[in-house]
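SRPBCC domain-containing protein
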Amino acid sequence: MDERRRLAKEVELAATPDEVWEAISTPEGMSVWFVPHERVDGEVEADFGGGNTQAGQVLAWEPGERVVYGAPGPDGEPPMTLEFLVEGRGDGTTVLRLVQSGFFGGDDWEAEYDGFGKGWDMFLHNLAEYFRHFSGRPVANVVATASTTRPGAEVWADLVARLGADPALGDRVRLTPEGLEPVEGVVDLHIGSVLLGVRTEQGFYRFMVDDAHHMVNTIQYFYGVQVDRESRSAAWQAWVDDLAGAPGHGRGR
């Protein structure tokens, strides 16, 4: 396999190896920083919002050190795998390494590779910030995703207009999405016209425009608080659906 199609990331975390292992080896732990996960008929299913789910199996398991997830292909080989490696450090921190293999072989695989890379940067940042600010608290997730035929730059411009702000990293911000409660916090993630992340007193809000896959989504994490996930998810899904639609339906500010 072309080495460029093997995406590797690592992050140093202010957590013990046991805490990191819990975060990457259980559905509850994965939900804390990634997307909602649950066990379904012996498989682990991830919910990416908007009816988009993906199920996989545990292909390798070395307790406390290594786990590999994947979905076996027709020839018995996984077309894509996620490998997590946990390494404790003597100073009380832990290094988590992630390796994703098996990218599709189409002409646009490099765009797919870049898109996954940005996504993992966000999710690993979530994990680091979780241990820094919300460690030990259970999570309630809200996820909304929609496909779009609009150019990414156009969707992004509409997104920040509808949120009422286009802040920079480190700014304090008050987002005002129409029909939804305001979001107040600090911008802790900002990647060009791709990703905006806000840390609030209760958790994280993430907004992403994925031009390579023609999608727009929001993933939200609420730690240690009661959240009506069903109604909140429905409201944000309607908001994202409208954003993904024709420009004539926009309610930009």
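thats it. The longest helix spans residues 109-133. Residues 201 and 241 are 27 Å apart (CA to CA). bye
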